[in-house]
Amino acid sequence: MRPHDLTAADAGLLSCLTCGLLSQPAGDDESNACPRCGTHLHMRKPGSLLKSWTFLVTAMILYLPANLLPIMETDQLLYGSHSDTIMSGIVSLWKAGSWLLAIIVFVASIVVPLLKMLSLLTILIAVHRGVSVHCYDLAKLYRLLEIVGRWSMLDIFVVAILVTLVQLQFVAAVTPGKGAAAFGAVVVLSMLATMSFDPRLIWDSAAHKKLHG
Amino acid sequence: MQSALIACPECDLLQRPTALAEHTVARCSRCFALLYQPLDDDLDRPLAFTLAACILFVISNAFPIVGLEVQGQTTSATLFGTAQALAMQNMKLLSALVFFTTILVPAVQLSAMVYLLVPLRAGRVPRRLPLAVRVLQAIRPWGMIEVFILGLLVSLVKLGAMARVVPGIGLWSFGALLFAIAAAVASFDARVIWSRYDPSLPGTDDQNRSRSSHAAAPAP
Ligand SMILES: [Zn+2]
Ligand SMILES: [Zn+2]
Ligand SMILES: [Zn+2]
Hints:
The structure holds two protein chains of two kinds. By secondary structure, chain A is α+β, with helices and mostly antiparallel strands.
């Protein structure tokens, strides 16, 4: 951080995240609206850290059933019935020779959700303890989370499509499993955790640490 | 207006906007967040892409996306049918999630863009403009057409071994829809919308006796 960095908050200005206009607060924190577009304004997203923690911890808890419970069950006349977890689905793609797709699904369903939750955890802990040097890296990491999170929905769509298509009497039928519901919840909750976090807190925390040690 | 300060949406740093060369964008000098692009006053391009996307959206929903043929039996899936199938298997929330991300969000996105662009193109300012922009911003992360298409690809590979897969009309228009929406969103500059919404509004000039201002560094 350079010594002369001045933020809108330092200058007592509110910045509108909808239209970008800076304005002077009219009164107490709850009564400010953007003079141009009317958006309700806050210095920082209200309750950002608490909301982010709540969504994140819930997502982390649900990550276990999402991976351990079957995401779908296949009944086949000739081969009997078997259930697939996320991981076993990836393994069968791999064994069938679709390596590229197996890797894509592995990254989207296992790596991305896990890394996403761990990254957000890192950022949240850093903000609480006071960011010292690597603000820029944390900011970049946060931006990455916003972009990649949605791709974890991949397996949900695969299950939905298979459930719709494979409804063949006497031949095969696919039904969704409990793991799919848990996995859907993990994706949505970790997206909500990312959205409720206010990246400006990273820089606030660094400025605070610099002033107060 | 040009001299007014702006705050970075991601780190809150105050900066003074500078004029941009063509094909460059302004990024925050501290956190490198995208601040603004050169003002492109052309509404024809976003409007054309939006209208094309609307037509493709209707086609994608009206026709089956993919069909399956095995031992004389055929099944097919439409976009709505996919959400419905989950609901019938007692997965109401998951079904709602699929409906929301692949049908509702794109539909609302396109409606909001039409609501904004058609009157603006004709020189009128729509009454609920701020609301429409806010809605567009809020739902953007939840539109997941491209993820759904990748999901289709994975499903088809999984099914390829056991059945004959028949691509439907919906599949082609759905693929085209992906590009039309992306192009519409990319060519849609919210700054143009705001400049037309309230051109009379002064910036924050009275507050410009600022102690600090970094020129927003233009980056390639
Ligand atoms: Zn505003
Ligand atoms: Zn409020
Ligand atoms: Zn910044």
